[in-house]
Design goal:
This protein is α+β, with helices and mostly antiparallel strands. It is 32% helix and 15% strand. Helix 3 packs across helix 14 (424-447) and helix 6 (130-143) runs antiparallel to helix 15 (455-470).
Length: 558
């Protein structure tokens, strides 16, 4: 067994892609490497099988480049209102909310019919609404900013950890019940062959709305993102080079200029949703061509890493009107037979009629393949030291445009909505909700470029607007049951405006008096009968001007 394992360095650079559904972890050996990773280089008719890729060594060659047709590029927000919530609701549409509302109510009925719920839960259930679910999602998003160990901690009245915003907005029992019943499709209509059928049409609707309101600029990139999931799942991936290491792999197409997420394919093994017409290019090539289908013919410049890049794919992209540049692996088929030994700083250049291949040595060897960039060495100044390095233009362009997906992962790592759950599809749904929020932030900052410095500020304002807009429309979530907590925080002690006013006249008296509530109910001082002309109208209690007004609104026990 040990003789078949790769070295730790090879494993670190290897991007694993399992086609097997029988195990949770797939680690290919060196003997399996070519059959899996070189799948895209099988030799297509009209390319490598016939043309043979006649490579010539010539550093002066420049591949033909075509101008980008960017008349459609940019953000298309068709609304006169541009608040944070308005932009968010363009991407997370009312149609999705209605679907989730109907399916959540249906799921409760299905579970209740099987007697899987306690009588108390069945008796207390009320049909949820789109309004309530929006507030529910707002609280879920807020949990990504306010980190606590358990859900019940968000409703704790312990002064040391309390966050009154949650209890003022929705009761804990109702929140937990909605989280338990949250559903996206009728279980009776699920297709067992479709591993994403638990989402129904939700994911397709989300991706369609992203494309509707943004068209990418000239440069786009495709990269993988690993969404953390350690539970049992047949298409779970193990990628040691990623921070999560275990999880659900997502192929993401993003705009390089704005970092806007354009499209996503969820890897589900052999059932991954890729177009059948591209199967000849292998799994990785099919992913690229499927993601780019809506952008053919406009001469976008695509940047990809060595998991996807191959001569066959580069040729096909050129035919479809996509210019591309990416790193390429040494063992890809149809690359030039370049065995020249290079020292650090040296570069070797080969080309065909439409492609340029570069092998350059820095701290390690780098291979680049492009169909639009010429061979050119440029100097890059170091950001940390006063030194500079001479690099090929392809490497500089690649480094400058491949960070969109990594930026998404970094930003969301500080503001993650998903929490630990036994249902993988719920956790993945909340990740897509976070991506919707991220895309909304990009659209909003285009309209208001100087308002927000950080995504977290936009997110908090969005949550506040959701709660402010939808809370007045429902009332049953505020009901509380059970005994009061020993840390109960009365309304009189919360940050609200309290003022003294004269007790209004009655039929019996024009200047009525009432007993001071603090003087008559004190627990730490002797009780007294004290009459006063003043009251706190918000609390509806009579109080002396001083010191009882201050004591009542600042001390839990008086």
């Amino acid at each position: 067994m040990a003789s078949r394992m790769q070295t730790s360095e090879e494993i670190e650079e290897y991007l694993f892609d399992s086609e097997s559904d029988e195990g949770d972890i797939y680690i290919p050996t060196s003997s399996e490497d070519s059959s899996l990773e070189d799948e895209a280089d099988i030799g297509l008719p009209g390319t490598s099988a016939i043309a043979g890729y006649n490579w010539s060594e010539d550093a002066e060659f420049s591949p033909p480049s075509f101008p980008f047709q960017g008349n459609k590029s940019g953000i298309r927000v068709i609304t006169d209102r541009h608040s944070e919530l308005d932009i968010f609701e363009l991407l997370f549409t009312e149609e999705n909310i209605c679907i989730i509302t109907d399916e959540t109510n249906r799921y409760f009925e299905q579970v209740s019919a099987k007697n899987l719920l306690s009588p108390n839960i069945q008796d207390s259930w009320k049909q949820t609404t789109t309004t309530e679910l929006m507030i529910f999602f707002g609280l879920c998003m807020l949990m990504g900013s306010v980190k606590k160990n358990a859900i019940r901690d968000y409703w704790s009245s312990d002064p040391k950890i309390s966050t009154p915003f949650f209890s003022d907005t929705m009761s804990r029992s109702r929140f937990e019940l909605l989280l338990r019943m949250l559903h996206f499709v009728n279980n009776l209509t699920i297709d067992p062959a479709n591993r994403l059928s638990k989402f129904g049409n939700i994911l397709q609707n989300l991706k369609a709305s992203w494309k509707s309101y943004f068209y990418p600029y000239e440069n786009v990139c495709i990269d993988e993102s690993l969404f953390l999931w350690k539970g049992r799942l047949s298409f779970k991936q193990y990628i040691p080079s990623k921070r999560s290491r275990f999880g659900i792999k997502l192929y993401i197409l993003a705009d390089c200029k704005t970092k806007f997420v354009l499209d996503i394919i969820v890897y589900t093994g052999k059932t991954t949703e890729i177009a059948d017409t591209y199967k000849a290019f292998g799994h990785s090539g099919s992913v690229v061509l499927t993601l780019l289908e809506d952008y053919y013919g406009r001469n976008h410049k695509l940047y990809i890493d060595n998991y996807y890049t191959s001569p066959a794919l580069i040729e096909r992209l050129k035919i479809e009107g996509i210019q591309s540049c990416g790193t390429v692996r040494q063992n890809r088929k149809n690359l030039p037979n370049d065995r020249k030994k290079l020292v650090r700083g040296e570069v070797s250049v080969f080309h065909t009629d439409s492609m340029l291949y570069e092998r350059w040595v820095d701290r390690r060897e780098v291979r680049m393949l492009t169909n639009f960039l010429p061979h050119k060495m440029e100097t890059e100044a170091s950001t940390s030291t006063s030194t500079s390095t001479t690099k090929p233009l392809t490497v500089l362009k690649y480094n400058g445009n491949m960070g969109a997906v990594d930026n998404l992962d970094t930003v969301l790592s500080y503001n993650q909505t998903p929490r630990k759950t036994v249902k993988w599809y719920k956790k993945l749904f909340f990740h897509f909700l976070d991506i919707c929020t991220y895309n909304s932030y990009i659209l909003y900052t285009d309209k208001h470029p100087n308002k927000y410095r950080h995504f977290s500020e936009f997110r908090l304002e969005l949550i506040q607007q959701i709660v402010d807009k939808y809370t007045p429309s429902y009332d049953y979530c505020h009901t509380k049951s059970g005994r009061p907590s020993k840390y109960e925080n009365p309304k009189r002690l919360k940050l609200e405006k309290h003022f003294l006013s004269l007790i209004p006249p009655t039929e019996k008296s024009k200047k009525p008096y009432r007993r001071c509530h603090v003087c008559g109910n004190s627990k730490i001082n002797p009780r007294k009968r004290v009459q006063t002309r003043y009251e706190c109208k918000k609390c509806d209690v009579a109080l002396c001007v001083t010191p009882c007004m201050e004591i009542y609104h600042t001390k839990l026990v008086f």
